[in-house]
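Hi team,

Filling in the usual template for the complex we talked about on Friday. All components are listed, including any nucleic acid strands or ligand strings, so the model treats them as one assembly.

SUBMITTER: L.P.
PURPOSE: interface mapping
COMPONENTS: two
RESIDUES: 230
SEQUENCES:
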Amino acid sequence: QVQLVESGGGLVKPGGSLRLSCAASGFTFSDYYMSWIRQAPGKGLEWVSYISSSGSTIYYADSVKGRFTISRDNAKNSLYLQMNSLRAEDTAVYYCASSAAGSLNYFDYWGQGTLVTVSS
Amino acid sequence: EIVLTQSPGTLSLSPGERATLSCRASQSVSSSYLAWYQQKPGQAPRLLIYGASSRATGIPDRFSGSGSGTDFTLTISRLEPEDFAVYYCQQYGSSPPTWTFGQGTKVEIK
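RESULT (copied from the run log):
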């Protein structure tokens, strides 16, 4: 069955960096578009970044542009999010989510999330 | 940027009752690009509806979606105990590509 498992979250000071990973299994990872979506404590969902199946097309939300970098390694069935210059408002659970080829407009599978806390 | 406004914020209903959730967009949204998700406490969101009215794999037929333009609706025909959760609508905008969520509607047990 489809499984997405995030890791790499934790406590980091403002201005610090963190790298999140998402390990995929149960489907042909290289065929799927992938995204990161976050949820601040007690709040709603916010899309963060998207990467195409080949990695050639990438988009970011304005709130993270220039600070976060999304990447993927299809040989390792893995998705990454490098987060630099972290701010308190980046505190959230970060989910990786997949979108089937031809259906980039919605997210069909989600991981369980990893918590990032930015605090001094 | 399209803003999605969900109403009501909280819906208090009893099992067996019908739930009607609204999602209103600030500009017209293609029906193909409107989805609904369910999220239970401590869990990841789960896709329920895509393309405004198509049920995702494994979703019971008591869940249905409808609407077009700026007004979309998620209906749960008869609430089961496991349906009490928060529901989010989401739209995809292509220029530039962005994915936007509504603020959510909580369906709670009355």
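MY TAKE: Strands of chain B lie at 4-7, 10-13, 19-29, 34-39, 46-50, 54-55, 63-76, 86-94, 97-101, 105-109. The first strand of chain B starts at residue 4 and ends at 7.

Thanks, L.
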